[in-house]
Amino acid sequence: MAPRLTADERAEALAAVMTTEEKLNLFEANPSTPIPELGIPSRKEKDGCCGVSLADSLNTPTTALPKSISLASTFSEALAREYGVQIGRESWRTGFAGATAPTSDIIRSPHFGRRGESFSEDPLLAGRLPASVVEGVQAQEGVYSLAKHYVGNYQETSRQGVNQLIEERALHEIFARPWEHIVKSANPGAIMCAFQQVNSEYACANSHLVQDILKDDWGFPGWVSSDFNACPDYTAYTQGVDICAPDLGRASVEQALADGTLSEERFDDMVHRILRTFFEQGVIDNPPPGALDVPSADVPGGVVPAFMLDDGAELSRRVAAEGTVLLKNRRRTLPLSPNDSIALIGPDADRYIDMFGSPSVPNPGRLTTIVDGITERSAAEVTYSEGADTTRYGDTLGGPAPVPSAVLTPAGASGDERGVRASYFVGFQGDSPQNPSEVRIEDQVNHRTGTGGLIGIFGLNPSPAPLISLTFATQPMTALYEGSLRPVRSGTYQLGVRGMGTFKLTVNGQTLVEENQVGLNNYLEPIDLVAGQDYEIRLTYQDDTPGQCCGSDVPGPTVRLAWEPPTASASPQIQDAVDAAREADVAVVVASTLEGEATDLHSLQLPQDQDRLIRAVARANPNTVVVLATGGPVLTPWRDRVPTLLEAWFSGEEQGSALADVLYGDVNPGGKLPLTFPATESQPEEIGIQNPSLGFNIANPTVRFDEGVGVGYRGYDAERLTPAFAFGHGLSYTTFRYSNLRIKNPRGWKAGVVAVRVRNTGRRTGTEVVQLYNGRLPTSVSTPPRQLAGWARVTLRPGQSKTVRIRVNPGGSDRVLSYWRVSDNEVGGRWVTPKGRVRIYVGSSSRDIRLRGTMLVR
């Protein structure tokens, strides 16, 4: 308890008086048992990338911050620090010493299911902003950051079995580079290693990643903890991992010591690292409430006070508004006038839009839905139409749209219920199942399970749509869906099943589709339907394809009653939205997705037939504003038909107020895209990045990172592909002019400086993110055509101008103007900053370059 000593000295002194039994207690699963007589609190940690994630059943409010991708769009390290401060304060208040924040994974694929809780495809942006979040979290005495997932979490599909083959240069320049900056500039107390294998070794048992790079090269002094059961066995301790939890905790460390697998020296190092972080981050000096009591993992040790929730709401609103990206604003449809009547449309605009799994915050302390926010801000009439059924976990499978609830009536319905009657049976019983264990009404047939579905069952899924119950998600099952379909338009439809397993669909007793033990695909057949007539639908299903059932990291039940209607008006929900749009001055369509942990996106198309919805609304009202509430890129095949398009992301608990701030011009959007929006589904493949979800039923796939260092915009530039929206793109309600480029060359250890004059040439105050890119490096080694080298945010009044300065520090932890030279044996190597002239580009995005110059590196 001598604060004058260093954290290392205090850790050594404490370890010297601990028994082996007491030391072993440190390695218990989260939470560990405290040792109050020595003042050692429990090691108690909680998911908190974007706010403290307490299970829905606990009903303990915390701040639901916008997801990290929204924060990244601000390009603001100051906001990122505030973001981290809020997480740290609330973690401590609820009794958690460890905040598993931030999620610092490179967004390699636009199909990545956790893109929303990550930051960027660019390693500079993906290092600097998470580092600021770490600093903010650890500004709270008594809380440490457990940053994740080092290094390799780039897909959720088969995440516990996938082997990712990454060449050494790409490993350092793209994937490990953000972590070097985080470690060296922010010093997180702990780092979580990933599930995946990297070059045939699990990330949590990979001595090259953990020992050689993280601990030896970078000098990381904290501890390395596994993701949930991510250590393959307890020999991972010998590879540099310090905590394997929960199944390889205290007992496994004791066993490793007993059989000689773990040396006393290595054990002492593990103990020291834990105690050091406890001292360094004030966990012992200022333990969270209840941390010295015997705790329960999810039960909070306290509550977040009202004033802190108010602070969180204010911060959430600022981040969401400043992170909104104006992608297009033709005819200057925005900002709106308060006197404009609004047709507000979207399946999720009237509910809390969030991710599922560990990034979710189930109990937001202050919540305004988009309907709430716009209705409160408008002085004119606001009408709301859903336009489609709510998004759900089954939508991540892509493919043809589910048959909407508005044309379905459950078998045996006595009132105005919509949907189908769903009966679930234990075991595989074919198409005549008996004795259902569960019968309920569901709005549509559109299910999948796997790990993501299991996570949702435990209260970490914001969608109100039904999930298959735990009983049937973890054992063989048969399902029977019954109802009638009453079309509102006559014509030829494509009707059938998108699914995996065995199923039989009959219409009026006649078999339309019948398939046995098939892989995921579309099985649709043409059928003529007459408006106003009832067609009896009966669908039996079982998840019996080999390898499909049962458990967590397998596909599980995967079934959708799907259609392709002949016209948009075949959906009554779309027709209602069109009617509302015709009567309003402006139509605002909120197009959304549901994304999250353990699941990648099978397609970048919008789910629930929202593309068809947008086209129909845009035809009805030329003043259509489309707002994307997504975790990342989606395809926008209608973008030339709408005048205005914004990306609002998953924007937290103040999503409604923040969006209203932007739509009505109370906040001028200044967000910039932290990742590329592809123009087609196939563009990522053209730069060498396959959609990971396409192999969702392969247990242990091998993925080759063929793109090398060409991740994201680097690959688009190298292959000369034109994306829908480029990295760094984002418009404003005002305009900016760049001039007077001046370049001061770096000299020795002295950083270079790029200065540029920026003038607001419009009529509104606005914020511009001035982006600096370097060209190919002066070396015979192939380097990307353009790479982000820095940026500066500047806020200007109309007519105001300022000179912004961007430092360029070759050889620093950012590794700007450098590349990784691989050793002759292709393992290891070193950073090289080549001497010579480098082209410099300054602009408003990676494709909107305003000024060019040359920097001399010597």
Briefly, what CATH class of the domain at 308-389 and 572-704? Alpha Beta
Average pLDDT taken over every residue: 96
> How many beta-strand elements?
33
**Rg:** 27 Å
Q: What is the 3D shape?
A: globular
Which structural class do the helices and strands define?
Answer: alpha/beta
By CATH, the architecture of the domain at 308-389 and 572-704 is named: 3-Layer(aba) Sandwich
Low-confidence stretches: none
Largest sheet: 9 strands, antiparallel
In terms of DSSP E residues, the strand content is 15-25%
CATH level-4 homologous superfamily of the domain at 308-389 and 572-704: Glycoside hydrolase family 3 C-terminal domain
Task: Please tell me about this protein's structure.
The chain has 858 residues and is of the alpha/beta class. It is 22% helix and 24% strand. The protein is built from 18 helices and 33 strands. A hairpin with a 6-residue loop joins β30 and β31. α1 crosses α9 and α10 packs across α16. The longest helix has 19 residues. It is globular and about 80 Å long. The mean pLDDT is 96.
Salient structural properties:
Immunoglobulin-like, 33 strands, 858 residues, Rossmann fold, 18 helices, 24% strand, Jelly Rolls
Give a short summary of the structure.
With 858 residues, the protein is an alpha/beta fold.
Give the helix/strand layout.
Blueprint: H1 7-16, H2 20-25, E1 45-47, H3 68-74, H4 77-93, E2 98-100, H5 125-137, E3 144-150, E4 163-165, H6 168-186, E5 190-193, E6 197-198, E7 201-202, H7 207-217, E8 223-226, H8 250-258, H9 264-280, H10 306-323, E9 325-329, E10 342-345, H11 370-377, E11 382-385, E12 408-410, E13 420-426, E14 438-442, E15 446-448, H12 450-457, H13 470-473, E16 477-485, E17 491-507, E18 510-529, E19 535-542, E20 558-564, H14 572-583, E21 586-592, H15 610-620, E22 624-629, E23 644-647, H16 655-663, H17 683-686, E24 702-704, H18 713-719, E25 736-744, E26 752-760, E27 766-774, E28 787-796, E29 801-808, E30 819-822, E31 829-832, E32 836-843, E33 849-857
Parallel strand pairs: 1-2, 2-3, 3-5, 4-6, 4-24, 5-8, 10-11, 10-21, 21-22, 22-23
Antiparallel strand pairs: 6-7, 9-23, 12-16, 13-14, 13-16, 15-20, 16-19, 17-18, 17-19, 17-20, 25-26, 26-29, 27-28, 27-32, 30-31, 32-33
Helix pairs in contact: 1-9, 3-10, 4-5, 4-10, 5-6, 10-16, 11-16, 14-15
